[in-house]
Amino acid sequence: MKTLAYIGLGSNQGDSLATLHSALNQLAEHPEIQVVRVSSFYRTKPVGPQDQPDYVNAVASLETCLSAQALLAVLLEIERQHGRVRDPNLRWGPRTLDLDLLLYGDAVIQDANLIVPHPELVKRAFVVYPLFEIEPSLILPQKISLKTYKEQLNADDLQVITE
After folding, report:
1. What b/e readout covers 25-39, taking b as 16+ CB neighbours within 10 angstroms?
2. pLDDT of res. 110
3. Which residues are marked as active site?
4. What is the pTM for the complete model shown?
5. Which domains does the chain have, with CATH numbers?
């Protein structure tokens, strides 16, 4: 049985656009993942320390028969292949690639390694706006529309990148 999942993509090190395209290609090549839609790419200011480059962010929808935990493992491996090193002392530092599992069907998951819906999803314009772009009628597992959250967020720092 396939599940529709949404992932957030971000990068602010190296050629961020090329990195996001490469990650999307790796996802598309996985035998148990089908990339359904990809939002525009957005240039955004960093969260946390401001002495780092702007981010490039996007959201993609995927159909998969992988479990949420198995999908997370694929995302973490793709991050690793792109040089991602996690520093436990630097929460919002620069990164070559960040892949977040935002939603996994209508599942609510809370375990040691995974929280779905992603706890920061509705607080971040750089996630909500691209997600709204590809799924404007989305109702989150909390039974609240994505549009409701979008209307509460300031998008002044979001800039669509035209490739």
Report:
1. ebbeeeeebebeebb
2. 94
3. 84, 95, 98, 100
4. 0.92
5. 3-161 (3.30.70.560)
